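subagent[fold] <- orchestrator: predict structure for attached chain, return tokens only, no commentary.
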Amino acid sequence: MTDFTRLPDLALRSYGGAVVAASDESFAEKEALVRPDRPGFQAETFGNKGQVYDGWETRRRRTPGYDWAIVRLGLPGVVRGLVIDTAWFKGNYPPHASVEACEVPGHPSPEDLSAAAWTEILPRVDLKGDAEHPFEVRSAQRFTHVRLNMYPDGGIARLRVHGEVRPDLSLYDGLSLDLAALANGAVVTECSNEFYSAPHHAIAPGLARHQAEGWETARRRDAGNDWLVIRLAARGLIRLAEIDTTNLLYNAPGEIRLQGRDGDGAWSDLLPRTRLQPDTPHRFRLAEPRPVTHVRADIYPDGGLARIRLHGTLA
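subagent[fold] -> orchestrator:
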């Protein structure tokens, strides 16, 4: 896979993504396209519609045209790359596909989206069966929806839409928000170690269901400690820090320290080195909030965090 796959999947169901419409889903449901897990398969498992597939599968076309599915991005943003996965579809995959995208504000219906101005971000490409197909996207435009087209019909297991989150923070004027939330535009810019799972999991939406949905490092065998740096959604004043070690029963850090900086300024303490408990959501009020743009979380000596939430107000 290419570097863009390190960016969050903007279409992921657990991030609020959804398949809002499709031309056909006779054999397998469209909603499978944005499931977070890898596609599964069990041979000779038949239902009323034939072999059961963990993906989206349409009927065999007997008329001109092609099939399509519209995906609402749970995290609107700039798309940097796509992965079209035809896992387990071997004799019934589409030979070609393309992807379009659009930006529509509010909460548009499928009818509204059909009339939207769509931009092609991936021209028609060749596909193989039972394979992941990564494609880089060169566009700086913000999008809220993508449309996957397959020619002429067949099955696709997953669509991954990797990119950079670009939210509308004007909704929070005068209100508090999680300045470290991926959904609000925060991003992990640096990390000491991501052996078991990606650091952006720590700022992902929702609660971690298991260890793999948080950030976890390898076991350290030296005198150092692990850390990550978060560029906040916007310059703000942090008043409450939530440090969640849920699901980390034997590999939670012993302690944590939070430091902040404004722009390229010096780091200074927001939360001094503080003890943590395993499998526990912790909440700490921060004394004397001041404007910061970045936060560094040091964990001692290693381990994992399910989530980091930094609640405050825009500066």
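orchestrator: received. Logging for downstream: The chain has two domains: 3-165, 172-314. The CA atoms of residues 17 and 74 lie 4 Å apart.
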